[in-house]
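Hi W.,

Here's what went into the run:
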Amino acid sequence: MADELKAAIISSASGLRAQSTRIRIVSENLANASATATVPGGDPYARKTISFAQELDRANGVNTVRVNSIGRDPAPYPAQHMPGHPAADSKGYVKLANVNPLVELSDMREAHRSYEANLQMVRQAREMIGDLIDLLKGK
Amino acid sequence: MDDLALFSIGSDRNRWLATRSAALADNIANADTPGFKARDVPTFEAALSSANVAMLRTNGNHLAPTQFGARTFDLVNRPGEVPKHSGNTVSLETELANLGETRSQHSLVSGILGAFHRMLLSSSKG
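Here's what came out:
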């Protein structure tokens, strides 16, 4: 078992990694919110989903978190009547991406909040290590 | 120096605080993991009273128990947390409050240890 304070930094670092992947997925969803198909009647961009799982870092004996899976949201695509659009089917309907910007923005806020909590943990573990080093300095 | 238990109890306390930090870091990292249960260390008082067991030496040839064996603290699921829809019991607010508490106690203990060390040094310098 590594030093406990180092263990704290390792698990927080895994949390930072996981949350930044989540932010990446959110930004991919937002960027593709109006991406339609390129062929008539085709499927547009499907919203990406992400889930986390607990993992034991065997090299250090530390519990960490990892990205479990990045999937696709199976929700139906909303259709809009836009005849003349390159992706319109024979009846003139275009399937739009199943991305709801409000859901994505609230997900982004939540990821940001978790990211900050992990960052605070790293900062504090470093300060605690600093306290111990100050003992050696005889301050 | 055996009667000066302050150093050993101080370092035990700091080790407990470090273990607690690792537990809190794990909780915060897994704040969005489905089914994860928040964990914590038992109180320092409980850990001290339960872990104070040494093997008895009935023969001079027996090995003495190690004097400097680092005391370790086991993690338990934190009781009384209400699970979210995903089965996760981590509340970031609770974790951050515990984190602040851990931080201030760690600097208090380190400060006391430093002050005690300076006292010893000044008495030995005469």
